[in-house]
Model the fold of this input.
Amino acid sequence: MTQERGVGDTVARALAAASPPKGTTVREWTLVGVTELGVMRAQLTEVLSPDAHARRAGAPEWVGQLVLIASELATNALWHGDPPTTVRLVRAERAWVLDVADRALDQVPQVDSDRAPGDGGFGLQLAHLLAADVGWYATGETKHVWASFPR
Done:
């Protein structure tokens, strides 16, 4: 992986280019602004915790982690990408996959490894900590950042 010096001497490395596990799209959201993130988070929690009793008791920890990463990746796409942002939840054979797309093909996702607290830039770091795998790929019109979580 390449490392580059960025603003304020922050070290950044390109996110690994890789295809996500294949699966079936369970739900998709199209976002044009950060105000839509709350609805996406609530609906994502509902999809992953379909039992009303389980939702009242609190979603399992892994659901909260997946929803957090969905929010972080979508926020990154909204701030750094070219809207609209599309968030897809995919059910693969052994994993849940979040696939977040925008149209900023010229921007390779970067993981900032030494940014100061309060300066932002922790979304991809959190994804690396909480997800089983993280990567990105591009199609003809969109750039996708994805994270997978064991089912």
